[in-house]
From TrEMBL, chain A:
InterPro entries documented for this protein: ABC_transp_permease, LivM-like
Transmembrane segments: 7-23, 29-49, 61-81, 87-105, 112-130, 160-181, 211-228, 248-274, 286-312
Gene responsible for this protein: livM
Swiss-Prot/TrEMBL keywords: Cell membrane, Membrane, Transmembrane, Transmembrane helix
Protein name (record): Branched-chain amino acid ABC transporter permease
GO cellular component: plasma membrane
Organism: Desulforhabdus amnigena
UniProtKB/TrEMBL annotation, chain B:
Transmembrane intervals: 12-33, 40-61, 67-85, 97-120, 147-165, 195-219, 231-255, 267-283
Keywords, sorted A to Z: Amino-acid transport, Cell membrane, Membrane, Transmembrane, Transmembrane helix, Transport
Compartment(s) where it occurs, according to its Swiss-Prot or TrEMBL record: Cell membrane
Protein name, per record: Branched-chain amino acid ABC transporter permease
Family: Belongs to the binding-protein-dependent transport system permease family. LivHM subfamily.
GO cellular component: plasma membrane
Pfam families: BPD_transp_2
One example GO MF annotation: transmembrane transporter activity
Lineage: Bacteria, Pseudomonadati, Thermodesulfobacteriota, Syntrophobacteria, Syntrophobacterales
Topology in membrane: Multi-pass membrane protein
Amino acid sequence: MSKKEWWIFLGFGLFIAVFPWLVQPVRAISHYIDVMVFAGIFTLVTLGLSMLMGYAGQISLAQAAFFGIGAYSSGILTGHFDMNPWAAMPVGACLAAFVAWMLGIPALRLKGHYLAMATMGFGVIVHIILNEEIEWTGGPSGMVDIPGLSIANWKITSEIAWYYLIWGIVFLGLLFCFHILHSRVGRALRAIHEEETAAEAMGVPTARYKVQVFVLGAVFASLAGSLYTHYVTFLNPGSFNLMWSVRFMLMVMVGGMQSLWGAVLGTILLTFIGNEWLQVFADFEILVYGAILLIVALFLPKGLISLVPLAIGSRNSRASAMKEGGS
Amino acid sequence: MDGFMLGTDLLQYTVSGLTIGVIYALVAIGYNIIYNVTEIINFAQGEFVMLGGLFAVFFVGTLHLPIFIAFFAAVFMTGIVGYAMERFVIRRTRDSSVLSLIIITIAVSILLQGSAMYVWGKDPYSLPAFSSGGPIMVGGAAIQPQALWVLGVSALVVVCLTVFFQRSVYGKAMLACADNPNAARMVGIPVRQMVLLSFVLSAAIGAAAGVIITPISLMQYDRGALLALKGFGAAVLGGLGNFFGALVAGALLGLAESFCAGYLSSGYKDAVALVLLLLALFFKPEGLFGSGEAAKLKKF
C-alpha cells in the first residue's frame, strides 16, 4: 500500500476508535453505536461487492442471498445443533463459497445483463427456500433465540464490545482487500475492468479471477450474515430478499464503485439513512432508494468519493490522485 | 376413476399453465422489442405489467369506466410511462456502460414500484372478468372465460407485432437500428425516435398483459420483479429477440410452474421458472430458437 493509503487507513481507524466516546455521552445520539455495528456488518458485504463491481466490473444481485446463507447457517447450526458459533461461521462461509463457485463458473462466462439476471434469479430462489423450509428456517415468521457470541467465557453483550469486534473484523477485511488489489490479482482485475478482451490476450485468466472474486464476495457476505445473526439473535427472510441486494449495490454505488473507501463511506451513509433518517418515510423508503440510485447512476457515476478531491480542492491531491490512477 | 381424475387435473393444470405462460411470453416480448432496437435489457419490464393492471383497476374501480375502455386507457397510460422513461432517463445514458444501464433500469423499476405503492398501497386488487358467464367445462376441467381472453389477446399481440416488424416501414426501421445504429442514421432513420417508440411499445404490451391477467391472479405493487425475472427466463429460453421463441418458451415456463404447483409443491412454484432461467443461462444462453453463432457476436 502507498504511504497515502496508510494515512487514510490510520485516520479512518482513529475515527472508528474514538467514535463511541464521542457519541456515547450524548443521550440523543448514543444509539449511533448500534447503527454503526450494523454499518460495520454491511460494510463486510459491500467490500466484497465493491471488489466485484468496481474492480472486476461484474454485477451481483445475489449478495443478500449469500448474506442469508451465512445468517441461516449460523442460526440453524447453533440453534438446532448446539454448535459453537465460532465453528458454525466457517461452515456457513464454506457453504456460501461452494454455492458461489457453482453459480460463478457458468454465470461468469455470462456478462452484463445475463449475469445480473442470473444472480437475481438465484437470490429469489434462496429467498423462496428460506420461506418454504419451515422445519429448518421457521419460514416467514423466522427464527428466534439464536445464541450470542462469546470469547472464551466472556459473553459479548454490550454494544461497545460488538462495535469493536465488528469494526476490528472490517479492518482485517479492508487490509485483506487492499492486499489483493495491490497484488498480481488486483492488477489483473483492473485490466479486466478496463478491457477484458485485451486482458485475455495478454494472458490474464479472466474467467478464473472473476470467479475467485465472486467467491470472495460471497464469503465476505456469509461471514457478515453470521455476525448479523448472533448480534440480533433472530432471523426472518425479509432481510435477505432482492431489495437488500439492491440496497447493498446502492451502498457501493453511492460511495463510489472504484474505491474500497467508497464502499465504506456509502455503507455507513446508507445505513444511517435507512436506520435513522428515513424512519419518517416508513414504507416509502423504497421510493427514496430508487431516487438516490437513479440520481447517483445518472449524475455521479463515480460516487461521493469522487467529490473528495474536489472538496479538498488542492491541486496536489488531484495530481496525486491522477498519478495513482496511472501507476 | 383415478385415471380419469388424473386426466382432468392434467387438463386443468395445462390450461392454467398456458394462461400464465402467455403472460410471461408478453413480458418476454417486451424485453425483445427494446432489446432488438437498443440491445438494452429493461429491468423495469415487470413494472409495466404491474402498472397496466393497477391503472385498469383505477379506471374501472374509481372512474367506473367499462372494462374495454379501461383496458385501452391503462395501456395508453403505461405507454406514457414508457415514453417518460426513455425520454427523461434512458436518453441521458448515451455513453453509459452496460453495468450502469443495468443499474439505471433497476433504479427506474424501484421508482415505479415505490410510486405504485404510494398511489395504490400494498393491497392486492382485482378486476371484473372481460366477459360474464361461468366457467366452460371441457372434459371435467373448468376453463375460466378470462383464460380464453388471455390467450386470444396474446395471440393477437404476437401476430400484430410479427406483421409490424416484418412488413411495416417503421418495424423494419426499428430492426435496422438494432443492427447498426450508425448505418441506420446514415440512411435517414431517426434512431432516437425508434428507441422511443420501442419503449412505448414494450410498455404498452406489458400493460396489456397486466390488464388481462388481473381478473385471474390479482395485482399488487410488488408483483413486477418476479414477473420481470420469469419473463426474462422466457426471453432467454426462446432466444433473445425472437418473438415466436418467446411465446413457446413462455408457455413452457407457465406449464412447468403449473405442474409443479399441482403435483409437487405450491410453495416452490415460483422457483421452477427461475431454476429453468438459470439452466437456460448456463447451458443454452442463445436459447432454444436462437443461433449460437449469432449469440457470440452479441455485445454481452
